[in-house]
Amino acid sequence: MRISQRAQAVAPFYAMEFAKHAAMLEADGHRVVRLNIGEPDFGATPVVREAMRAAMDGRPMAYTAALGLPALREAIAGFYADEHGVEVDPARVVVTAGASAALLLTAAALVDPGDEVIIGDPSYPCNRQIMESFGARVRLVPATAENRFQVDAAAVREHWSDRTAGVMIATPSNPTGTSIPTAELTAICDLARSRNAWRLVDEIYLNLSDHDAQGRPPQTAVALDPGAVVVNSFSKYFGMTGWRLGWCVLPPALVPAVERLAQNYFICPSTPAQVAALACFTPEARAVCEQRRLEFAARRALVLDGLSRIGLPVPVRPDGAFYVYIDISGTGLTSWEFCERALQEAHVALTPGRDFGTHSADTHVRLSYTASIPDLGEGLTRLSRFVASL
Ligand SMILES: Cc1ncc(COP(=O)(O)O)c(C=O)c1O
Description:
seven-stranded mixed beta sheet; Aspartate Aminotransferase, domain 1; binds pyridoxal-5'-phosphate; 2 domains; alpha/beta; three-stranded antiparallel beta sheet
């Protein structure tokens, strides 16, 4: 069978290879500490699970509108007002099957073959794979520790070409957990807008971010640049990975194009998941999510302390997503070797930098602190013994 060049060009998600290997070790009776997958261990909040049970009352669960349940689009717009103090017209909110579908739909709406798209390196691999699937040429711009592993406006300007059609930023970032400074994000958006290019900001971890000294969450790009495309999800902050629900906020001119694409690609996002997700915005669910955000901060402190005792440097302290990006170059191993041996010899699953780009791929590994405090403690003890044995 002839497989499309598009499909053949998609690189594997190496984190999944390590997950498979970890599962094999577990099947052989070993206890693996899994610090490799970016999936909150809490699951959906109790009130959302209850809403799903209540919705399962025999009702038919028909398709919704392609852009999502109107009540959910309004609730998401209300979340921007409550959480970020920004008014969003619900007509600009599109509910999708996870952030992944939002990224797919917006890429389909924005990218033509041959367009260049600027993305930082390291970054979430699926973002560039999706762009390339639509024929984009992705310019991976090295994002260094000095810049919090995020691109800055000067680098964007330097890598700009006649073919640049857009810039994509994920903040906070996967795999580094670090956010771009607001002034820098604003400068990048201003630069791209002045050159008539689109701005796509993936904020899937935004609501897990640290608050400032006044207790305020970081600003959303929706407030900084009303013309930007902003993607978010129920997966991380609301703990609903497998429910497959996310959203994007679009500039009004893009809504009809995305609506047509959504009708054709998906018909609609999952109706039961949408009905239950309405409960995410109740005070009970919000209180639980806030509690979890603080729990992640406590876990991060434990992990950073443990890694510093082991002598594994974390060049930039994460401030948002539940990842730390560890520099393992001092061990004499490549990140791939480090992850293979940590899994085989210490039964600790991590993800090598190779998934996230090329720039720091061999020298860094990602640790995801989506495990309980006792499991994180056990993982750190094992890593300490493993590093000492090298
Ligand atoms: C930066 C980033 N964007 C998008 C996604 C996709 O999330 P989902 O489709 O589960 O909403 C992920 C998942 O890990 C991610 O890390």
